[in-house]
Amino acid sequence: MSDVVLHLWHSDQLALASVRGELAPAMPSHPGEVDELAGARIDADRGQRSGAEVHAAWRTTAETLRRELAACDPSARLQWVAGDLAARTLATTRLAECWIHTNDIEDTEPTDRLVHVARLAHRTLPYAFSREGRSLWGAVRFELTAPSGAAWVFGDDDAPTVISGDGVELVRVASRRVPPSATSLRGTGPDADAVLELVRTWA
Q1: CATH assignment at residue 134
Q2: Are residues 64 and 12 in the same domain?
Q3: How many Cα atoms within 13 Å fall on the side-chain side of residue 35?
Q4: Phi, psi of 118 (to 5 degrees)
Q5: Report field, pTM of the whole predicted structure over 0.70
Q6: pLDDT digit string (tens) for 128-168?
Q7: Stretch 65-69: mean pLDDT
Q8: Which residues pair with 140 in a beta bridge?
Q9: Where a domain ends, among 85, 108, 131?
Q10: Does residue 124 sit within a domain?
């Protein structure tokens, strides 16, 4: 559990540096390098603080990040590990990662706030495909159901590929916490299988 919170703290520190314009522009772009660096930071910090101290440090950084992101122009471009992105998008990636790792520790009740994460997964499909050296055949539409029963719909009516089903399941698939085959998600169209394989919520 402490390692999970350490990772959240480290990644929130990077996000805070991004908001402040202090993140080095030459960040690693290969997925393996990013993961290796994250693991190395955890190895270096493991055991240096008590669990309570790690939790307190993360909560302080997370609150500072929340406050400074709220003060940003949502469309401001910020440096991140995969290039620059909008402040709004960076905030959504932090929401996604916090939710993912919170559920790594203990199951939580999903809420309709996950709409932001589902939208992120849809908007970043071209990036997800490009990371694997693949291309989308055409546009993709998500037709999802929120925890409240509301509809989450992203994409054009005439998109050739449609992914439909439970919105929380889509977010879990995009978080790589469950395989598509373990969900009730359905896909039709030329990119359906590839979308469910490659969709992601992180850089």
Answers
A1: 3.30.1050
A2: yes
A3: 4
A4: -65, -40
A5: yes
A6: 999 899 999 999 999 999 999 999 999 999 999 999 999 99
A7: 96
A8: 161
A9: 108
A10: yes
Q: Which residue has the higher pLDDT, 47 or 123?
A: 123
Q: Report residue 100 as tokens.
A: 């993912």
Distances from the Cα of 129 to the Cα of 12, 63, 121, 134, angstroms: 26, 33, 12, 5
pLDDT value of residue 107: 85
pLDDT at 32 over 60: no
Strands (E), 12-122: 77-80, 83-86
pLDDT at 126 over 90: yes
Q: What residues make up the domain containing 192?
A: 114-198
Q: Examine the fold and report which residue of 108, 141, 170 is the final residue of a domain before the chain moves on.
A: 108
CB under 8 Å to 155, separation ≥6 — which residues? Answer: 122, 139, 140, 141, 142, 162
Choose the weakest-confidence range: 27-36, 85-94, 97-106. Answer: 27-36
Q: How far, in whole angstroms, is CA 164 from its chain's centroid?
A: 20
For residues 141 and 56, state if they share a domain.
Answer: no
Domain count, the chain: 2
Work out the number of other CB atoms within 10 angstroms of the CB of residue 153: 12
Q: How far apart are CA 14 and CA 22, in angstroms?
A: 9
Residue 203 lies in a domain: no
126 and 92 housed in the same domain: no
